[in-house]
Structures are given as structure tokens and as C-alpha cells.
Design brief:
The chain is an alpha/beta fold. It has 16 helices and eleven strands. Helix 2 packs antiparallel against helix 3, helix 9 packs across helix 11 and helix 9 crosses helix 12. The longest helix has 25 residues. The two termini are 13 Å apart.
Length: 488
């Protein structure tokens, strides 16, 4: 049962071939076996999972099944879950138990999913390898003996889904935090259009960039999860009213005479990527051309400036958002000699090095002497990038590009903070522009590790992005079954 996709499992659940309880127990057994080694969960919820499964079985039995009844999932530990510890992988919130449910987690409850636990991540979603987690980094199940990173910040969910410790899960993408980890763990990761999925009840990093999205093994599975997550939320002032209809299985967008213009970003041609990534990307583009796609070169003139703009805007918003953690209202409190000393000691003890680094950068760029020089300049670059994407979509329907430059690195790789930041080069521009992007496996590199490429679309073109991603998935045809990956 571990190797079933969500779409396959739903059919077997509806037919009575398997029960939600059996499916859940299979995943709980696997968590018991590999959970410690992979470190993909911060908090496990086996009692809740079995209760969810029993309720799903009852609904299936009496003919009132919901959209995802009985499907076991991992919830990134950034989404508030009522009565269940929500830590954001930080010492600051190590013992925080919310009295409310985030909109996204409530949508999954309403859809009938089974909650296996809260998955690991970079502290407050700030990182690339999930190494900044207060609870230690999750591990990729690919070539387990090498202890490869599972990416970040949603590395706990990618580790869990790739290893069969969940059938699907949630992530958040602020600068690539869904797409990059999915690209190096052989999964499908969706960064929806900004505002398509509610941020209410999700611990904030950078509010104008944070985008909840699904993580799954197949494009159809990811589309199913997104269909549950999407929708207007009156509690979120940035939530969109645009309705997106997602039906699964996704219909082909190419073949049988269908015409589509697929763009290649000119400015990425000179960016150094591995030979494997270059070859696989070219193969998949040729495959799309064989189905009738017209391949056109488009220009996003400022896209290589996106990284610099992102690392001004994101820390600035983070410094504002994280100011609420002061030891007074909730979370960790370290007593000081007065209230200001309490603030200082609480934050010194509660935040990790990367969070402190970004808060310091953010506070600096928002200072009166730097605001116009750095923050406003970054905001102008952001506007220029969004405008450039809009012009590019006058020349093409969708864009494809790599998700990352290379395969997963060992967790103990010694990179500087700037080298970590550079790994976001292919992903941050889409967050700045607010447009949808999907990372889909495009093949295996010469070292037998997965690589991913992105499909990018204009705002609210999420369905067409998924449709083209499905074509790439079919051409790549990698075997990402958990028992195949782990050999057991």
C-alpha cells in the first residue's frame, strides 16, 4: 500500500479493496520504522491518524465520502493545528499549542484526510536544506547511506512523501521552498498563484511572498491536493476571489493538433548548471516539441537581479513579522532585568543563527538611512520582473526552466550563507511576480539522483501549468515509488 499514489488509493478505498485504517496503519508502521532515521516529522500524531481513518471508513461505508477521505498526509509544521503542537521548527515556539486551526489544515480536515503528523522544516521556513531546524535536519530517502539533504524549507514533507511516510503533504514556497526540495527528491511541488491558497493560520515569514502549496509523487496527485487547498478565504486579506476549477485526471494540453507556445528564458542560458541538468532539460524540451509545442525564446531582462531583490524584501518582511516574538504574549520567555532585557534574552535564546541573520538584514534595510537605497530599489526591481513576465506571456503561453542547478548535496556540505542563497536563483523570480510554477521530475542524473524542471504560467493559469507538467512527467517516467527509492 505504501507505493500507491493518492489517485490509486482513492479508487481502492471507494471500492472497498482497502480500508482507510489499513492504509493509515501501513504508513504509521513505516513511520515507526524509518521516522527517526529520516527525521521528517517534528510531531507525530498516531492517535489522531487512527481516529481520522476510522471516521473516513465510516463515511465511505455509508456513502458520504469526502474528496480525499482516508488519505494520510503530512502537514508542514508552519500551519497552526488546534490542540497539536505547532513549532515552526523553532525553539521560540517549541511548546506552542494553538487554540485555532489554519484555513489550509481545516480544508484538509473537511476533505477527510488523515493527519500523520507535523513535518520538519527550516526554522520559520528560512533556509534551503532544512538544516536550520531546531529539531535537526530531515534526510532524503534517496541513497540513504549518503545522508543527502531533502531540500528546504519544506524538506520534512518531501522526505516523508518520497519515503512513503505520507502519501502527500503541504509546504510553503517563499522563494522556492516547495519547488527546490521537490526537484531533488523526485517529487511534484506546486507554488500556486499568490492568493490562490489562504495564508491564514500559517506562521508568517514574508507575507507578500509566502505561498502554501501541495507536495505529491505525481502531477495528478498534486492537482487533487491543490483542488482542496485553493479557494477564497475572508480571513486572509490577500486571498483571491478568482475561482480555479481543477479536475483530475488532468487533460492533455499538447498532442492531437493542440498548439502551445512554450518559452525558454534567454537570460538563464548563461547560468551555470550541471551537465546532467542541461541534457535532461534539452531532452524534455525536445519531447514537448515532438508533441507540437512551438519553442520560443523569451527575455526576462531583470531575472538575474531577482535573487538580490528577494534577499532584501524577504528579510525586511521577516524582521517585521518576527517582531511579535517578544516573550510576552506566547512562545518562549527568558526573564531579564526589565522588559527590554527580557525581549533581548528571549530572542537571543529563541531564534537560531539564520533567523537572526535575516532579521538583522531586514531591520537594516528598513532603517531610515537605507530604506530608499535598498528596500525601495528592490521593490522597483520586483515590479520590473513582474512586468517582464507579463510581456513574455504575450509571446508564449507557458515557460519552462530548471528548478535547480544540480542534484541533492550531502547534508554536511560546507556552504557559506551566500552559496545557500544562490541555490534559489531559478525559483525566487516567480515568487516576486506572484505567478504559478510547478517543479516536476525531468529524469535521473548520471548519479541516479532526480532532477526537476519548472513549468511557469501567468497568474491564475495554474491548471495549464499542471497540464504541461504532466506531459513532462510522462516523458521523464522516473520510478519514484518509495520501495523502489529505498530498496525496501
Amino acid at each position: 500500500m505504501i507505493d500507491l499514489t493518492i489517485t490509486e488509493a482513492l479508487k481502492k478505498l471507494q471500492s472497498g479493496e482497502i480500508s482507510a485504517t489499513e492504509l493509515t496503519r501501513a504508513h504509521l508502521d513505516r513511520i515507526e520504522k524509518y521516522g527517526d532515521e529520516l527525521n521528517c516529522y517534528i510531531t507525530r500524531t498516531p492517535e489522531r491518524a487512527l481516529a481520522d481513518a476510522a471516521a473516513a471508513d465510516e463515511r465511505i461505508k455509508n456513502g458520504t465520502a469526502r474528496a480525499l477521505d482516508g488519505i494520510p498526509i503530512a502537514m508542514k509544521d508552519l500551519f497552526a493545528t488546534k490542540g497539536i503542537r505547532t513549532t515552526a521548527a523553532s525553539h521560540m515556539l517549541e511548546n506552542f499549542v494553538p487554540e485555532y486551526e489554519s484555513t489550509i489544515s481545516q480544508k484538509f480536515i473537511d476533505a477527510g484526510t488523515v493527519l500523520l503528523g507535523k513535518s520538519n522544516l527550516d526554522e520559520f521556513a528560512m533556509g534551503t536544506f532544512s538544516k536550520t531546524s531546531y529539531f535537526g535536519a530531515p534526510i532524503s530517502p534517496w541513497q540513504l547511506e549518503r545522508r543527502l539533504n531533502a531540500g528546504g524549507s519544506s524538506g520534512g514533507t518531501t522526505s516523508a512523501v518520497a519515503s512513503g511516510l505520507a502519501m502527500g503533504g503541504t509546504g510553503t514556497d517563499t522563494g522556492g521552498s516547495i519547488r527546490f526540495p521537490c526537484s531533488i527528491t523526485g517529487l511534484v511541488g506546486v507554488k500556486p498563484t499568490y492568493g490562490l491558497c489562504s495564508r491564514w493560520g500559517c506562521v508568517a515569514f514574508a507575507s507578500s511572498l509566502d505561498t502554501p502549496g501541495p507536495i505529491a509523487r505525481t502531477v495528478d496527485d498534486a492537482a487533487l491536493l491543490l483542488s482542496v487547498m485553493a479557494g477564497h478565504d475572508a480571513k486572509d486579506s490577500t486571498s483571491s476571489n478568482v475561482k480555479t476549477e481543477i479536475s483530475v485526471p488532468l487533460q492533455p494540453i499538447l498532442g492531437d493538433g493542440k498548439k502551445l507556445r512554450v518559452g525558454i528564458i534567454k537570460e538563464f542560458n548563461d547560468v551555470k548548471i550541471s551537465e546532467d541538468m542541461k541534457n535532461l532539460f534539452e531532452k524534455r524540451v525536445a519531447d514537448l516539441k515532438s508533441l507540437g509545442a512551438e519553442i520560443v525564446e523569451v527575455s526576462i531582462p531583470n531575472i538575474l537581479d531577482a535573487l538580490a531583490a528577494y534577499y532584501v524584501i524577504a528579510p525586511a518582511e521577516a524582521s517585521s513579522n518576527l517582531a511579535r516574538y517578544d516573550g510576552v504574549r506566547y512562545g518562549l520567555r527568558v526573564e531579564g532585568s526589565d522588559i527590554y532585557d527580557t525581549f533581548k534574552k528571549t530572542r537571543a535564546a529563541g531564534f537560531g543563527d539564520e533567523v537572526k541573520r535575516r532579521m538583522i538584514i531586514g531591520t537594516a534595510v528598513l532603517s531610515s538611512s537605507s530604506y530608499d537605497v535598498y528596500f525601495m530599489q528592490a521593490a522597483r526591481v520586483r515590479r520590473m520582473i513582474a512586468d517582464s513576465f507579463n510581456r513574455a506571456f504575450d509571446e508564449c503561453d507557458l515557460i519552462v526552466c530548471p528548478s535547480g542547478a544540480n542534484t541533492a548535496l550531502p547534508l554536511d556540505s560546507d556552504l557559506t550563507p551566500l552559496e545557500y542563497y544562490a541555490l534559489d536563483l531559478f525559483t525566487v523570480a516567480m515568487n516576486l511576480a506572484g505567478i504559478p510554477a510547478v517543479s516536476v521530475p525531468c529524469g535521473l542524473a548520471s548519479n541516479n539522483l532526480p532532477l526537476g524542471m519548472q513549468v511557469v504560467g501567468k497568474m491564475f493559469d495554474d491548471v495549464r501549468v499542471l497540464q504541461l507538467a504532466k506531459h513532462i512527467e510522462q516523458f521523464a517516467n522516473i520510478d519514484n515509488r518509495p520501495t523502489k527509492i529505498m530498496g525496501k
